[in-house]
TrEMBL record:
Stretch forming the signal peptide: none
Entry keyword annotation includes NADP: yes
InterPro entries: Epimerase_deHydtase (IPR001509), NAD(P)-bd_dom_sf (IPR036291), NAD(P)_dehydrat-like (IPR050425)
NAD-dependent epimerase/dehydratase domain: residues covered: 100-356
Key words of the record: NADP, Oxidoreductase
The keyword Oxidoreductase appears for this protein: yes
Protein name: NAD-dependent epimerase/dehydratase domain-containing protein
CDD domains: FR_SDR_e
GO molecular function: oxidoreductase activity, acting on the CH-OH group of donors, NAD or NADP as acceptor
Pfam families: Epimerase
């Protein structure tokens, strides 16, 4: 049961509503500008608040005493009321579709937020920590962020926190995922956190009448062709392939954090798909799409090379621990399914813009073996010496059938060469790949 957190004085202009029909007010709570909501229209007690940073403008539709439609702009200095003068431009913005991106400051999340803003969508992005200036700052500097981006704080281990960001959104991209670092939580906690995060986000989607579709960013790690005892069973991996989470694949290979990540992504994806077709608050059915994405490479908006990009060029840098991630993929998946950051984000938008779409889709443009990647590097970057133990084994890779998404109409723009070359370019720009002139 939520407790009232603020009671407004009599006569306060607060009779706005959100997309769910709840009564809204705006003000400061705990030093944050906040939207307060209350499901009881006649009450002046507000039970819930969404914290966000300013530098973004939030537009609410207000019906004040007289029946003129007015807008309120919430900004750093507080509340401003406008009338018809500004309404036309604001109406245009208010009419843009609203979507939520969890994990908006990560590698994929930030690229997706940028793309959605460029396409004119209003984006509710979640971050773990709104006080992290570096993450907040670069998102707020994206073109269109000043008017169309709203940041929310939400932590996977407090999954109810996502509901504020989800309210009013038509589409929800669940991108965030907990990851294990050397000093963090147990495997069990990571796996349970990922699953309960999906569950809670899906429940919020069901309860928010505006939500039509949940798009879950899954991983090809959830679609291994290996049997429990480690033998290949399929010549071509497709959407019906699921990783056996109790298989011995990782213990034999020794990468415990990768095993945890694999299990968490597999089970979280299954959990997300379980909500497909569930009845939602507007009397319709929630559509759930899961995109099982390959290793992502290419450029980044972040100030460091993301781990997947570093894995792409690990043979050039000779970084053994990063290369072991690549080996793990080949062992589990039979080859290295890969996709360019721009394509993977386009695929997310594609899944949103389709009038109707649900189910599981593999999202990978190419699937070379480690040896084929090494051959590309040897031919195109001869100035780099690839250590012999990073050259990979000459063998036939397992094919990945990407036709399901393509049959829906999606077109990949980047092939293996583009993905690898853009990853190297990114690594050089960030100083992670030292340029050696020929
Ligand atoms: N990169 C790949 O090759 C690849 C391939 C297939 C699938 N994926 C999937 O794509 C998604 C994004 O991956 P990425 O490569 O962009 O990774 P990333 O840069 O590490 O981003 C992960 C995101 O998750 C958020 N996050 C982590 N722990 C969290 C927690 N406890 N509570 C709330 N948020 C949390 C992070 O938030 P903060 O920024 O606030 O810390 C960050 O935004 C993930 O679901 C991943 O499994 C990635």
């Amino acid at each position: 049961m939520e407790k009232p957190i603020v009671t407004l004085g009599r006569g306060t202009a607060r009779s706005a509503w959100n997309y769910c029909g709840q009564s809204l007010a705006a003000g400061f709570v705990d030093g944050y500008l906040s939207i307060l909501d209350s499901s009881d229209h006649s009450s002046s007690s507000f039970t819930s608040s969404s914290k966000f940073k300013y530098a973004i403008h939030l537009y609410l539709v207000w019906f004040i005493k007289f029946p003129t439609l007015s807008y309120s702009k919430l900004c750093k200095s507080g509340l401003t009321l406008w009338r018809l003068k500004k309404i036309l431009t604001m109406e245009k913005q208010a009419a843009s579709k609203v979507c939520c991106v969890t994990g908006g400051s990560g590698y994929l999340g930030s690229w997706l937020v940028k793309k959605l803003l460029e396409k004119g969508y209003t984006v509710h992005a979640t971050l773990r920590n709104l006080d992290d200036k570096s993450k907040v700052g670069f998102l707020e500097s994206l073109p269109g962020a000043d008017t169309n981006l709203v940041l929310f704080q939400a932590y996977i281990y407090n999954p109810h926190e996502f509901k504020h960001a989800i309210q009013g959104c038509e589409f929800v991209f669940h991108v965030a995922t907990p990851k294990q670092t050397a000093d963090t939580q147990s495997s069990q906690k990571i796996i349970e956190g990922a699953i309960s995060g999906v569950r809670s986000i899906a429940e919020s989607c069901l309860q928010s009448p505006a939500v039509k579709r949940l798009i879950y960013t899954a991983s090809v790690l959830g679609a291994s062709p290996l049997t429990k005892d480690g033998f290949n069973v399929e010549f071509s991996v497709k959407e019906s392939s699921w990783t056996h989470v109790d298989a011995s694949f990782a213990s034999t290979h020794g990468l415990q954090h990768m095993r945890t990540y694999t299990v968490s992504k597999t089970l979280a994806e299954k959990e997300a798909l379980r909500y497909n077709g569930e009845a939602n608050a507007n009397g319709g059915k929630l559509q759930v799409v899961s995109l099982a994405c390959g290793l992502i490479g290419g450029e980044t908006l972040l100030s460091h090379a993301p781990s997947s990009v570093a894995a792409m060029f690990s043979q050039l840098t000779g970084n053994l621990s990063t290369f072991m991630g690549l080996e793990y993929l080949e062992k589990l998946l039979g080859s290295i399914p890969m996709v360019h950051i721009d394509d993977v984000c386009e695929a997310h938008v594609f899944c949103m813009e389709k009038p109707s779409m649900a189910g599981r889709f593999i999202c990978a443009a190419a699937n070379p073996t480690i040896a084929q990647i090494a051959a590309h590097f040897r031919e195109n970057y001869p100035q780099h010496q690839i250590p012999q133990q990073l050259m990979g084994e000459e063998k036939e890779g397992i094919a990945w059938d990407k036709s399901k998404l393509v049959k829906m109409g999606f077109v990949y723009k980047y092939d293996m060469e583009n993905i690898l070359n853009d990853s190297v370019k990114c690594g050089r720009r960030l100083g992670a790949v030292v340029s050696i002139d020929q």
